[in-house]
Design goal:
The protein is α/β, with parallel strands linked by helices. The protein contains five helices and 26 strands. It has two domains: 64 residues, Orthogonal Bundle (Tetrahydrodipicolinate-N-succinyltransferase, Chain A, domain 1), CATH 1.10.166; 182 residues, Hexapeptide repeat proteins (UDP N-Acetylglucosamine Acyltransferase, domain 1, 3 Solenoid), CATH 2.160.10.
Length: 271
Amino acid sequence: METLKKTIEQAWENRKLLDNEEVKKAIQEVIELLDKGSIRVATKTKESWQVNEWIKKAVLLYFPIQKMKTHEIGMLEFHDKIPLKKDYASQGVRVVPHAIARYGAYLSQGVIMMPSYVNIGAYVGENTMVDTWATVGSCAQIGANVHLSGGVGIGGVLEPVQAAPVIIEDDVFVGSRCIVVEGVHVEKEAVLGANVVITASTKIIDVSKDKPIELKGRIPERSVVIPGSYSKTFPAGTFNVPCALIIGERKKSTNKKTSLNEVLRTHNIAV
């Protein structure tokens, strides 16, 4: 792995090396390892998540060494540099027409893809549902037993290479039409109600206690979140600006489905 990393770093600094066949093989090997889930763009340590910048560099270098090619699947035709993921049956993944995952994305056993899209470099954990028209952007990290509801948009990031991807940890429920982008980190067992939009600059306000607590870029574990707004004054006047409100906490439970249903009823949340 250190040899691969060194080769990628050298090619990143000197693009002329992309003409070298050994360098091309190294880049292709990294993408294959991503596709198999043997390596990840971001890995969790005891204290935090670590971005593996060299792997993101390999993904970026993969594009210039690939040639445009027509891919035919029955009556469907695609024209792209990156092939589609294949052999879902052996991986234990259910893929409903017209779901698409690009080669270099990893889908764990038990993943269900309704008509949806998963981009290169993404990681999707075991038994996760990617529901209808949900999109998982390049390098996004999705945990196990996550439900990405219909129309959810999980942002991707390749550049800058040091930028953290969106991270959705285990057992998270993301409601319909939510948008989570710009490296936002949603910790385990959180529940996002329908239409929540969270960017790196979005105010996340915990209103479940006596005084509001303001956060940015992170949803704490087991938080229950709904869309909200706050007043902000501009030269033209005072207007409401979108934010996300933490209104409670999902109860600890071994039965995650029961726990989720209780949260939805208790807080009257649309999903």
